Each structure stands twice: as C-alpha cells, then as structure tokens.
Amino acid sequence: MHPFPTLIVDLDIVRTNIERMTAKAEKADVEFRPHFKTHQSRKIGRMFKDYGVKAITVSSPIMAEYFVEDGWNDITIAFPANVLASSYYHRLASRCNLKTLVISSEIVKKLDKLITEKMGLYIEIDPDYGRSGIPVSQTEKIAEVLNEIEESDHFYPAGFYCHAGHTYKTRSEEEIKELSLKALKKLTALKKKWPDLPLCFGDTPSCSVLDEFVPADQISPGNFVFYDWMQVQIGSCTPNEIAVYMECPVVEKFEDRKQVLVHGGAVHFSKESIQVNDYLSYGEPRLKHLSKATYMKSLSQEHGIVQCSKEVFEQIKVGESLQVFPIHSCLTADLMGQYHTTNGKVLDHLSGT
Amino acid sequence: MHPFPTLIVDLDIVRTNIERMTAKAEKADVEFRPHFKTHQSRKIGRMFKDYGVKAITVSSPIMAEYFVEDGWNDITIAFPANVLASSYYHRLASRCNLKTLVISSEIVKKLDKLITEKMGLYIEIDPDYGRSGIPVSQTEKIAEVLNEIEESDHFYPAGFYCHAGHTYKTRSEEEIKELSLKALKKLTALKKKWPDLPLCFGDTPSCSVLDEFVPADQISPGNFVFYDWMQVQIGSCTPNEIAVYMECPVVEKFEDRKQVLVHGGAVHFSKESIQVNDYLSYGEPRLKHLSKATYMKSLSQEHGIVQCSKEVFEQIKVGESLQVFPIHSCLTADLMGQYHTTNGKVLDHLSGT
C-alpha cells in the first residue's frame, strides 16, 4: 500500500472511454480533436493514436510544447491568445500546425506584428455561457474579427470554437441534452453564414450524451477520458466509467462522530466541491455499495475528513487505504503530477515534469 | 512582464512578518516553532534563522525530508502519525530531532513495533475545532495515550499540540480574540494536570491578534509569513501585510459586462474562495485604491474572470498584467511551485522540485 496519497488510473477504463468517444465522433461524422488538459500525459496521449486521433487540443502554450515534443503536430491552444506569450506561439507555430483562439480584432492586429509564422485562429464564440468569446448573436463583430484574420499574411481562419461550459450546471442527462441542443441550434445561423469554416464544439457533458452534433464539424471534449464525481452528478457518466481515484492512507477514526481522517487534502484533491443531495462533497469514497451517508466532508491542506455511515465506518481500518473518486479529475491530476496504474506502473503528467 | 501567471513574493514584507511574530513570541515568553507548510521554501526558511528560530513545524514526512536536507534538526510533523509511512518517520528520526502527533494509544502501539529510533510524540488536543485530536475534556483518554507513550522504549512525550482552526470562521479581530482565548482557557486544566509537558498552540489568526498565550509554551503559526486575502477577511492582517501576489496576463476585456479575462485559473490560484460582503471571491486584485466592485468572480482550469468597477475596468489594459492577492496563499504557492522576488530572483518551493 502506498504510504502517501496516490492517484491511481485504470487504463482499461481510459481505453473504453476513448474508444466510445472515437466511435461516436465517427458515427456523427465530426472530427475528434480531444482536449488533453485533463490527463496532461504523453503516455495517455499516445493511447489516442491507436484510435486514429491526429489533432489535439490543449489549454496553454506550455502544454502545447509538452505534446509537440512527443510528436503531435496539429495542436489547438483552446484559450484566447495572450499577447504577452507571443514568442511562445511563434516558436510553436514553427514546429507544428498551431491554432489558438481570438475574440477581438485588436488582438489579431497586435499578434500580427509579433508572430511571423503561419498559424490558425479560431474565433471563439460564446453560446450564452458568459465566460469568454463573442456572443453568437454579434455577427458584425464576428465578421470584423474574421476580416482582420484574412487581412493578415500569417494567420488563417481555423473556424469557430465554442465551449458550452454551462452544461456543468445541469443535473441530468435530459438537462444536458436540452442545454447543448439549444447551444448547437444557436450556431446554425453562424454555420449558414460561413459554411466553409469548421465549427468546433465540445464540452464533456454535451459530447457524452448527444449522438449528433449538427451543425458542428469537430468536437473537443477532454474530461471524458477520466470522468469524475462531478460528471456523475451532472449526468454525463456512471461511477463505473470513472478511470481515476485517489488512494488515501487512513490515519485515524473518530468513533463518536463516525468520521475518518485520511491523508489526502486540498494539495492533493484540489478544493473543488459539489453539492450532492443535502451535503457538499469534496470527494466520494469508491465503495462496493454506494452509501449516501459517506462522503468527504472537508479538506485542509493535508487532512481529509470522511463522514461515514455506521456500516462503512466499521469497515474502514487504520493503516489501510481508502479509495476516493475526485470531484474534478483535471485539477486532482494537475496537483498529483503523476499516475500509478492498477499494475503499478508510473505515468507522466506535465505538472510533475 | 511575465508571459504566464507568476507568483511574486515581497521579501521585505516576509521579513517584517517574521520579525513581528518572533518579537511577539519572545515578549510572551513562548517558544516560536513556525509552520513551514505555507512557504515550503528552503530559501525563505533560512530567513527564520536570522531571528533565532531553531525548531520548525511541517505537515508531511516529505516536507520534513526537504528541510532536514537543508540543515534543520528539530522538526515536528504536525499531522497525526500515518502508520503506512512508518519507514519515513524511522529514517527521519535518525537524522533529526523528530516529533509528530498521535491521537490514540492504538497508533502508539502500532508505531512502536515499526520504529526503533528515538522520537517525540505530541498528543493532539482538539479545542472544539472538530477536525482531529482528542477533545480537551477527555482527560482519561489523554492519560491513556500518554501512558502508552511512556511505556515505549523509543518514544517520549513531546507535549500537547492544539490547532484552533475554527478561528478561520471569524470575521474580526475581536471575534478571533474571543474564540482563541476561549480555546486557551480550556487548555488550562490540561496544563495544571501535566505542568511539565509543553503545550503548543497556534493558528495564524490567534497568533496574529493575541499578545499572551497562557497556558501555552510554544506557538506554531504558518500562514502569517505571507498572509492572504482570507486572513484580511478573518481579521488577522491588513492588505499591506500580504507578502505574495499573482501576476496574471490580461488576455481580453468584455466591455458590456465590465469583466476582464486573465490567464490565471484553478491550477494557479487553487479553487479556494471566500464570501466578501455580497460576493464570492476567488482572488482580490491588488489595486492602489480598494474597489468593492472589483474581484475575481470565477476560475476555470486556466481562465480567471475578474469583475470590475467601471473605473478599474478602464484602467486595465490587454497585454499588461493584473496583480491579484490569492485567497489562500498556502495553496497558491503549492500549485505555483516557485516564487519570483520583486527583484527578479527565483526561490524554491518543495512542490516545484
């Protein structure tokens, strides 16, 4: 047993998750450009090659570098271009088919003075999520940015990129479907106006429950490779489809309050939480039988307090480990910096390199 | 300007914070055993030596190893002993004067079979915080654990360790004082019963506002070295005493909603938040003049959305950086893995090594 909190990955589940999403993309006739921000692992990244994946999505120039060095040569940095990092884009664009996102013609102008390599620019479209992007209704602004891209000698329009992140607020498969179909419907006018420009869509909840993505041409989900307890709550997956869990040493038991202290805190899980029924959960013990009364109740820097049902409390033993599903696998993996497979091998993660 | 989110440390403020706490401990006649879990930096750790600090506190065996290798030889791991990590305690105890916490005689018995080096054990006392430790009223249980320690050939009683973590729920200096004095008062009976055993007390809020710590003999605050926006809200410090801030590239501005997109997300700040008046803040822009309407409204993996007052929005420029105080400096530093000083030097952090 591991002496410290350890992130375990079940590669069989990873493979099944990749296989299912690849098959779905193929059937729906959309290009699959998976987001690698969840696993951030070269070894896990290579598993996608077995399924014909050639183009990937990342969330930062550093992450793009990590995968360029592993032979990937069609990479989209799905984050609005940061002019302070222009030298990174320039260098990356000389090494691969690089694309990133833009929202304003001002940025395109600024980048055009700083980058002389050929590079694709997606215009980010906001489907009422409200985080980033041009609202889908602002056709004039979209045309203005597109025009600016076309005037550049170095840039070409890569298409439209649209992340419907508000699906994370749903709590059932039906709700996800309703919300994502509404977002896709809004994009129809855009696609009609610019039929030749690829439209990339894709958050894990939408891509998990939809079978058709019209009018989108590409999908780029990321979290689906592992899933997590948040995705179970949203309605994207079942607990059996979660590919990662933490193994936390059981340090003490508190009989009177039916709580267990594990080594596993905010520096391991992250401080992400989700409301589950009437409690706020920071992690969900991976038990043979689901127990509504058992959940990670609080996290300090290194402490995790697990509230237990009477039965679960009696089964847990000091000196053993408790397996816990993370609420948000992307953040937990980023903190842990490496994976241990169920066969005891160690896999890389960018943050641990 | 840094192209990516960067953690800046102002060493003048660090020095002032250390100096103030050292002077306070001296005046109050308590031993100062600072917690190093906040900075986790050898270089920052060495600054404490200038103020006569000889004994330190950490939160894990790995952190203890990091500081043993930098010459510290009196180290308390302020986390209940994890029997799965017994080989680490054993090895550490052969290299320094090691202490850790215990809560039950069962654990003392188990450890005694696994560790043959001399080692101190603090009995952790819970001052109604409810996370870990023996409730202060359970004198019999305390005596039982103490007895088990005294029967061991390898262990000796290091004293009582008491973390009043519920001070983090207060919202003014007066509230902190009331709560921490109440906790200290509860410890009086313990001290009377075992006058020869040192009593270690200390969370940053209590140590920041109290001047006397009777009946405690030692204090071990950690966060005070940097402080953060949570400590400002709790009532422990002023914004001028915060020694760290993030520099985040300003990527885009959204005029209609007076929001700014910065590169700086949950993998940089952590997902810690705090309720400030009527909003939930994930970070507080470091501005010349405080603006109640300006705060970090949401964080995704790499995105930070800053809600701005009209005036602040106009001052912020794309292609520049925005300085942001973290909500919880311990977690932000752990994620960032290194510090940049205001003079451009880079300082180590355990997680980046």
Automatic annotation (TrEMBL), chains A, B:
Record's keyword terms, sorted: Lyase
Coiled coil: none
Species of provenance: Gracilimonas mengyeensis
Any one Gene Ontology BP term: D-serine catabolic process
InterPro entries: Ala_racemase_N (IPR001608), D-amino_acid_metab_enzyme (IPR051466), D-ser_dehydrat-like_dom (IPR026956), D-ser_dehydrat-like_sf (IPR042208), PLP-binding_barrel (IPR029066)
A GO term, aspect molecular function: D-serine ammonia-lyase activity
Name of the protein in question: D-serine deaminase, pyridoxal phosphate-dependent
PANTHER family xref list: D-SERINE DEHYDRATASE (PTHR28004:SF2), ZGC:162816-RELATED (PTHR28004)
Family per record: Belongs to the DSD1 family.
Lineage per the UniProt record: Bacteria, Pseudomonadati, Balneolota, Balneolia, Balneolales
Superkingdom: Bacteria
Domain D-serine dehydratase-like: 243-343
